[in-house]
Amino acid sequence: MARTTYLRNEQLRTVKAGYPGNKLFGSQFANGEELYTPEFSNVLRWKLLTENPQKEEKKADTWAPAVVNCAEFLAGQDDGLVWLGHASFVLRTQGITLLFDPLLFDSTFLKRRHPLPCRPEELTTIDLLLLSHGHRDHLDEASIKLVARQNPGLRVLTSLRMAPLLTGMASTLQVQEAGWWQQYDLGPDAPLDIYYLPAAHWHRRGLTDLNKVLWGSFLIRTQDKLIYFGGDSAYADHFEDIERQFGPLDICLLGIGAYKPAFMMQLSHTNPHEAAKAANVLRAGHLVPMHHGTFDLSDEPASEPIRTLQEVAAGGMLRAELHAPKVGEVMPWQQWE
């Protein structure tokens, strides 16, 4: 049996009373109390032994989100929220610009189904880079190098044991690591608070690093709003814990794609019904879906996630107001009631 220990950043404030830190089984982080190990047999079952019952429907579904250019917003100073596709967002509030999980380039395994709403070179006013976890569709080396080069004063907020990975990509990065339920130190005059919170997920980038870097989600507290970025997560009881700790949330950015086949995806991502349930549990006022439409990661047809979520909302099963923005559309979140 691997030795059980707990880890957190002792330099940061832990906001949940009595929380000892993230549980480690040997060198591997756990989802709360349980160690999650993705089964390679499930990958083989999915790729070699399972026929997608929606194969033809998926092939015929060429839907992709509409795209509008957001260069003017990036060059300006107005508050706003912009979806760059997948799980990448730009949020500006009170003169501070935050960039979440940027994936700006195609790679061998990730081919974008729609254009980026800006040129990567236009991301030049970033103050804080928030990285939820280490999977390659959230932590992209080429994107990290470019953003670091173009924003020399950039500060990175991320998870425990992520710093060596990031500084290996861009040695000048200023990285602050946090465990779950910890508040980042932004300085005494910062106009916002940022917390690193749980998610039900896992980590792997290579053959020997399974669960050795933590994963999670973010909460941003502005002057009058609570904005939650869910990262990658399965549906689990951490949503109830977050609501219990912080009360109703104003805006939630939650994943709705990459959920089929369920035997492969259900412990990693939320489907549209689960995302709606999570938003309800969080008592969210507004829901902005993400993690759909940009890359082909799973078996469901491209348009199914957002179509299903819209049906859920139309049926009265989503209490939050649903926003389905174009990629690059500036959302005036500060005006939302």
UniProtKB/TrEMBL annotation:
Q: Taking every annotated instance into account, which residue ranges of this chain make up the domain Metallo-beta-lactamase?
A: 99-292
GO molecular function ontology, one term from the record: N-acylphosphatidylethanolamine-specific phospholipase D activity
Output the Gene3D superfamilies linked to this UniProt entry: Ribonuclease Z/Hydroxyacylglutathione hydrolase-like
Please report a single Pfam family linked to this protein: Lactamase_B_2
Which GO cellular component terms are attached?
cytoplasm
Quote the InterPro entries the UniProt record gives.
Metallo-B-lactamas, NAPE-PLD, RibonucZ/Hydroxyglut_hydro
| Name of the protein in question | L-ascorbate metabolism protein UlaG (Beta-lactamase superfamily)
